[in-house]
Amino acid sequence: xxxxxxxxxxxxxxxxxxxxxxxxxxxxxxxxxxxxxxxxxxxxxxxxxxxxxxxxxxxxxxxxxxxxxxxxxxxxxxxxxxxxxxxxxxxxxxxxxxxxxxxxxxxxxxxxxxxxxxxxxxxxxxxxxxxxxxxxxxxx
Length: 140
Hints:
Layout: H1 5-8, E1 12-16, E2 20-27, E3 30-33, H2 35-38, E4 45-48, H3 52-57, E5 64-65, H4 71-81, E6 88-91, H5 99-108, E7 117-120, H6 123-132
Parallel strand pairs: 3-7, 4-5, 4-6, 6-7
Antiparallel strand pairs: 1-2, 2-3
């Protein structure tokens, strides 16, 4: 039975604020988190991994822009804003975008070793969809 244990664990449930349960699904590049669960994290640091044009058209209030194009300038602000234990939520445009995974992987990597770092499942599109279908989204 012990040999099957790693294969049986496909996801884990985390209780996030006010008794809400969200499914967090481990992936090789980190943990995906649903928009509703991310919005309930205590004081998350939001990182927008999209391009500057998309960021200027709309982003999570207080989010910091960080992507491969602006990394050397923007990482300083991210490191100043982060404190140990503060959750980081990285998002990009949609579930088809891999920029958020690349940014999260780099933040967790040997150079910075930041934790916890989550990737928003579905990205900006999922946040907008949640708002359109009437779910109450409370911005940080």
